[in-house]
Amino acid sequence: MKIVGISGSPNQDGSNSHMIDRALDIARQRGFEVENISLAGADLSPCTDCHACRTENSCPIEDDMAGINSSLASADGIIASSPVYFGTLSGQLKMLFDRTLPLRRNGFLLKDKVGAALAVGTSRNGGQEYTVWSIHAWMHIHGMIVVGDNNHFGGITQKAANTDEVGMKTVEDTVNKLCDTLDRLAPV
Ligand SMILES: Cc1cc2nc3c(=O)[nH]c(=O)nc-3n(C[C@H](O)[C@H](O)[C@H](O)COP(=O)(O)O)c2cc1C
What we know:
This protein is of the alpha/beta class. The protein has seven helices and six strands, in the order E-H-E-H-H-E-H-H-E-H-E-E-H. It has helices at residues 15-29, 52-55, 65-73, 91-98, 101-105, 128-141, 165-185, and strands spanning 2-7, 33-38, 77-83, 114-121, 145-146, 155-158. Helix 6 (128-141) links the parallel strand 4 and strand 5. Flavin mononucleotide binds at residues 9, 11, 14-16, 83-87, 120-123, 126-127, 159.
């Protein structure tokens, strides 16, 4: 089974990359195939609501999104991480989410995949919980099965994530919950 991790930050080596790398390391150690998608340097444009995904079953925008959508469609589990920007998820991650509309319109291709969310902000209470919920909203609207960290809502850290031991424990608990749920749904 495959777990795809998405780092929704424009920074290649920042806190989100650290959180997704750690989450995917744990998933790999537990026997899952993993794929790491970083939005740092990704070529992504916003959805223009042109309806082509409804009328022609295709998206006319030529950028990295076709590849990202096929990775997401091939996943059993998805773990998405965002920096908190003005109290909610990054524009980069929101752009990705909006561009997954073709997957919903053409057969709910993310339905029943297991999803989990991570967030990091510079402030201790900078909007991480709301950011996690915003990621959950995308997952619910795709019909995904959403899990938290077995305690609260998901993985929440304060920048720099690699120095936030308590926060990183919630990241680890979240990915373990994701793996546990996949194991229960389709035991190997
Ligand atoms: C435009 C912008 C808005 C931000 N707003 C918040 C905020 O509302 N709350 C907060 O805690 N941190 C905020 N930050 C700090 C980022 O959350 C922090 O730099 C980020 O989580 C680091 O992740 P990265 O290292 O993966 O890029 C903001 C940063 C930027 C650039």
